Amino acid sequence: MTSASPAQDTNAPRPGPEHATDQPGRVEVHGIDFIPEAERHGRARELFAVWTASNVSYLYIAVGGALTLMGLGVWQAMAVVLAGNLFWVLVGLLAVSGPASGTPSSIVMRAMFGIRGNRANAAIIGWGIAVAYEAINLSVGVLAGFALVDDLGGHVNTVVKLAIVLVTAVVTLTISVYGHATIVRLSTGFTIVLGVCVAILAVFVVAHANPHYVPPGAPHGAALWAAALAGLTIIASGPLSWGVGADYARYLPATTNPRAVAGWTALGGFLPSVLLSAIGVLAGTAVDMTDPQTSLKAILPGWFYPVFLLAIVVGSITNNVLTAYSSGLGLQAVGIPWKRSATVFFDGITAVALTLYALFISNFLDTLNNILTLSVALLGPSVALYATDILLRRNQYNGLDLHDERPGSPYWYAHGINWAGATAQLLGTAAALLCVDTPVLVGPVATALDGADLSSLVGPIAAAAVYTAATLAMRRRTPPAIERGAVGAAHPVPPAAAPSHGPQATQAD
Predict the structure, then answer these.
(1) b/e per residue, 340-359, with b = 16+ CB within 10 A?
(2) CA 371 to CA 363: how far, in whole Å?
(3) How far apart are CA 345 and CA 324, in angstroms?
(4) DSSP assignment letter at 197
(5) What integer pLDDT is reported at residue 365 of this predicted model?
(6) Alpha helices in 284-304 (DSSP H)
(7) 3-class DSSP state for residue 296?
(8) Helices (H), 152-179
(9) What is the rounded CA–CA span in Å between residue 146 and residue 164?
(10) Considering only CA atoms, which of 53, 369, 383, 105 is closest in space to residue 240?
(11) CA distances (Å), origin 224, targets 217, 219, 253, 256
């Protein structure tokens, strides 16, 4: 990586007619396939709006308010917010593999898990957890839509509720189906509109906030540390759920400054996450944040409350646009032979079905929320070993090799599985589960530490350590003649099988 700030991004070529396959208002033709250099375009700074728009989410306000409900004081909660959102640095690091490989994260991770092993990874993390998050986000948006109709004097019956669910889903899926260029173009507008709403909200919240507020029954000593660590895990779950940075950077030229890619991606997620969580913390000093959507009405002027509700709806859409887009790519990476537009549509239908079931049939939404509290045990190790692989390979990935699924190909490893990655993921997840403290499961380590949840720290560290040790051991055992595009490849591959495609299309080690 060269040394440059996020603002320095001068190497990208100007867009032209050769980029016609990725234009706003046209359905994107590419899915998980390799993006040729002739079709690369854009600048790293575009990533800032993409990630900002998708993270102006009401959920961060709710999470910030939850910290005060857990007994943390204002400055303690603010420290937890800042610490937990530092995981956005890892999300930025993952994004640099996009321009280097010209492929999305769900394909880059073949380097970590192998061709076959990555199908299981893509099915569980790339698609399964992503669709669950889609359902949660959609539910949050439509509940705000119900409240908006009611606040404006409408009658919220079953037909109206169903209409709100379908309209919200259709808008989301339409943008996701149109794809990358449309997402990039719309992100700036969404960022500005939602940013103005957040700024107005912040003014009213700060006016009522008490920076010296001490929650009733505030914990001390070991109990305080337990609350802080539990809050850290909750905050960290936000950035750790975005292990797909390459998806939105893969159209950038291979020569794009990696520091600019990482910086703009991380900053785009970090700023709104911190700001909105901080608003939630401050709001918790003025109102009961058990139900922020309702309780915030007490400190907001009548004219702004409907705007606030509409912003929640729009924020859920912008968040789900990226979630649906990436989960569609994840479904392709599993091996489903559908076009990207079809996989996105299928993901949307699945998320809508889950949402309707949660809202109209059972309290499945609570169950889904509880399950997702455990997702950090999977997502943390996954993001950590992905970041570790980038560092070990010095971000050198051959996108064409990554798409070679033949036995003996550079990323085939042993019978299609990279056991270094698979073992690191399993052991990292196991270590995290030993440390969790959730409504669904309390690990023995958390029990021994009086409820201190170390899963967001222990899982990633364990996975990174195991993957580093296993990968370096494989390097020492693998003869250079066999070690081609991936460390520890199981079979030699003739040079002709790995064509070059640019300055970073060298062997993967």
Answers:
(1) bbbbbbbbbebbbebbbebb
(2) 13
(3) 8
(4) H
(5) 53
(6) 292-295
(7) helix
(8) 158-178
(9) 7
(10) 383
(11) 11, 5, 48, 45
SS3 state at 1: coil
Task: Give 456-472 as a 3 state SS string.
Answer: HHHHHHHHHHHHHHHHH
Q: Where do we find the tokens 């059972």?
A: 362
Residue from 36, 44, 43, 9 nearest 20 by CA: 36
Indicate if the alpha-carbon torsion angle 282, 235, 387, 137 is positive or negative: negative
For the question of whether the overall pTM of this predicted structure is more than 0.85, the answer is yes
With CA atoms as reference, report the closest residue to 249 among 78, 406, 142, 108: 108
Cβ atoms within 10 Å, residue 7: 12
Closest CA to 174 of 324, 338, 355, 21: 324
CA distance 281 to 506: 48
Specify the range with the lowest mean pLDDT, choosing from 165-174, 415-424, 433-442. 433-442
Q: How far apart (Å, rounded) are the C-alpha atoms in residues 410 and 404? A: 8
Give residue-wise pLDDT tens across range 67-105: 998 899 999 999 999 999 999 999 999 999 999 999 999
Backbone angles phi, psi at 472, to 5 degrees: -65, -35
Element (H, E) at 396: none
Read out DSSP for 40-90? ----TTHHHHHHHHHH--HHHHHHHHHHHHTT--HHHHHHHHHHHGGGHHH
Distances in Å between the Cα of 104 and the Cα atoms of 134, 246, 381, 417 are: 19, 5, 19, 19
Nearest to 427 by CA among 370, 471, 385: 385
CA 35 to chain centre: 22
**Model pLDDT for residues 127-143, shown as the tens digit of each residue:** 999 998 899 899 999 99
For residue 75, which amino acid is it?
W
Reduced to 3 states, what is the DSSP secondary structure of residue 442?
A: strand
Rg (CA), the chain: 23
Residue 417: phi and psi, rounded to 5, are -125, 130
CB 61 within 8 A of CB 276: yes
Reference 55, options 448, 322, 352; nearest CA is 322
Other CB atoms within a 10 A radius of the CB of residue 294 amount to 11
Domains and CATH numbers, the chain: 39-363 (1.10.4160.10)
How many angstroms from the chain centroid is the CA of residue 465? 23
Q: Most distant CA pair in the chain: distance in Å?
A: 73
78-to-19, 82, 279 alpha-carbon distances in Å: 44, 6, 10
Burial zone of 423 (CB within 10 Å; 0-12 exposed, 13-18 middle, 19+ buried): middle
DSSP letters, 249-263, are TTTS-TTS-HHHHHH
